[in-house]
Amino acid sequence: MNIGIVGGGAVGLLLAAYLGRRHKVTVYTRRLSQARQLAECGVALKKEGKTTETAVQARPFAGTELVEPLVFVTVKQYDVADVCSQRDSFRRVGTIVFLQNGMSHLEQLSVFADKNIVVGVVEHGAFKLDDRTVAHTGAGKLTLAPFYGSPAAAAGLAGDREFPIEWADDWERILVDKLVVNAVINPLTALLQVKNGELLEVAPYRDMMAQLFDEVRRVLPLRDAGRAWERVVHICRNTADNYSSMYMDVANGRRTEIDAILGYVLKQGEARGVALPLVRFVYCALKGKEGGSRDE
Ligand code: KPL
Prior knowledge:
Bound molecules: ketopantoate
Largest sheet: 8 strands, mixed
Structural class: alpha/beta
Oligomer: single chain
């Protein structure tokens, strides 16, 4: 199968490394220099001290017509609007899979009303080391759910033991579950500048996680708060050696996804008249720390 991947950040490179083993993958990047490097040298995946190379094709995204029937969009949530504004480039694409944190970008996807749209969440621990190298630091899974249209083209995707792919029926449930995880782990790791696992190891950090979770759960439609907390702890443990995406954004002077994550939670609180003092504090502290540049 021919697969396009828009975005050359940690998630885009991770997908390229694994899907590129079985499929013909083209990565569409923001910068020409990254596309050139990927096309010449391939993607390097570092895992447990070993490096694996996978050949991919690569081209700059802007102004290029995508020719693959199935395309993954892996850009940060704040760049979904930019991708949507280039809808003509997707003329020949049948199915688009959006892999963003948060939920407020979903309304923008209506510009692709004539396509099959799938949304998904990535639970792997991964961070980008350079333009063609990604470290896979925590084994997780990719969960996909149909958003509208038929997911048939994506149904043929084969995962494997190292990169399992699961399907779910209920897109809202998988996105809310992931939002809770990101709302608790990402801002605290970014603020405290610690790896995911340290949140569990240091007692005051763990208390902060629990308090943040307690506020977040009041305004998100969780089916089972006990299970949701267990998931947060499980993912934190599974990705213990990972620098969260928000940690990496702050460390590199980039814009973060704090608006998409805690900003969204705050809006839900305002709509319901629920005060969320710790969420507001963490949100404001992060806003003061974030830089202006964008991720890939
Ligand atoms: O999704 C993540 C992220 O960093 O954005 C987790 C699962 C927290 C892994 O770090």
